[in-house]
Amino acid sequence: MTVLPSLPLQQPYPRALVSTVSLTLAVAMLATTIAARPAQAAADPTHPKAVAALRAAASKARLNAKTTAKPASKVTARAAARASDVEGEPVNFRGWQAVADFEADMVKHYNFEPAALKAVMEQVNYIDSAVQLVKPGPPGKPKNWQAYRQRFVEPVRINAGVEFWNRHADALARAQAEYGVPAEIIVAIIGVETVYGRNTGRFRVLDVLTTLAFAYPDAPNRLARQAFFRGELENTLLLARKSNIDPFSLIGSFAGAVGLPQFMPGSILAYGVDFDADGSIDLRGSAVDAIGSVANFLVQHGWRPAGDQRAVVAAQLSATRAWEGMLSQGLQASYSAEQLRAAGVTSAENLPPDTKFGLIDLQNGAEATEYWLATDNFYAITQYNRSYFYAMSVLDLGRTIRLARAELGLR
């Protein structure tokens, strides 16, 4: 196994596409301080005509770009298309009543200066690719845990994980001691999320969050998702003011996640840690801050550091299938070992009587489904991403990286 050379911890971040004068004015005015109250999610008014017009304009702009531009090669054509997806289309979001209401709320509840906020919102673009990427996938495709696992437990992430662990061994050991979260779990989450900073996203966070807050595609959970993204848009402006940074300097994923650990802006405010003690929380440029913040997030979401609580143990199921009702019971450990035995669920490993478990199923397409018993620590990982596949891939990648280091004589 070849260990990769040192990986960059941060991709370059483009400067905001505004003039220096307007940027200075906007940041200064946004820096007005006030005690923040909890974010409020408001139901978003539907604007079907406006959304349809936006999509049509975006499609027309892309079509015009394809027909008028004459790139030197297919490579430059693809690069131009990717840049268009990231930069989006200029849109007068401020003409929407829902956006006007949002601005009014920010002024009323958080004392933002109206002119500064107006200057910011006038520069927000519509990102059609973000809308397309959040649409539900096609129905009927069977879930396959082993195929999912192969995307993350693979040589690039394993080698990079060994390098990351070696480079930040002291910070990882300190996080493990202070929070009780094993180093391998922290390393694996950052590896799954961004390959240790290689893939932190290319979108301006304000663009994608505004787009998804006010132009989310038709879906059964549309209103709930719009409310979530509206709240994260609010958190982005609060974060920029608190950190005294240009809000357009925040670059992230198509859903607005930021930095090595891909925290949403609200999570940065709530769980971010200045673990390198330099006076600021920087999840984009500081791997040490990312390490401490991931550990803090897990503990705040139920990770139990004390004792020998494994995240999962393999389950053995009786043929009576009395245990089926224990599946799909939410992201929490609910059953005692005694309750599991009564339903025909056991394990080759000892199940402590004072530990709660949940029964999870990992479907493998046409192959046999895997069943596991999960503790609170497993479910803490699902609060990072609400997926059994995600949490199990973190556990498997972390264990594999730990074993790879052991082969090199590292602890």
Secondary-structure map with pairings?
Blueprint: H1 20-30, H2 48-68, H3 74-87, E1 89-90, H4 97-110, H5 114-121, E2 125-126, H6 128-133, H7 145-152, H8 155-167, H9 169-179, H10 183-194, E3 203-204, H11 205-214, H12 222-243, E4 251-252, H13 265-271, H14 287-300, E5 312-314, E6 316-317, H15 337-342, E7 345-346, E8 358-364, E9 367-374, H16 376-382, H17 388-407
Antiparallel strand pairs: 1-2, 3-4, 5-9, 6-7, 8-9
Helix pairs in contact: 1-5, 7-17, 8-10, 8-17, 9-14, 10-14, 10-17, 11-12, 12-13, 16-17
Which stretches are low in confidence, meaning pLDDT under 50 for 5 or more residues running?
1-48, 61-70
Order of helices and strands: HHHEHHEHHHHHEHHEHHEEHEEEHH
Please report the total strand number as a whole number. Answer: 9
Structural class by sheet pairing and helices: mainly alpha
Proportion of helical residues:
40-55%
The coarse silhouette is globular
What proportion of the residues form beta strands (DSSP E)? 5-15%
User: Can you count the helices?
Assistant: 17
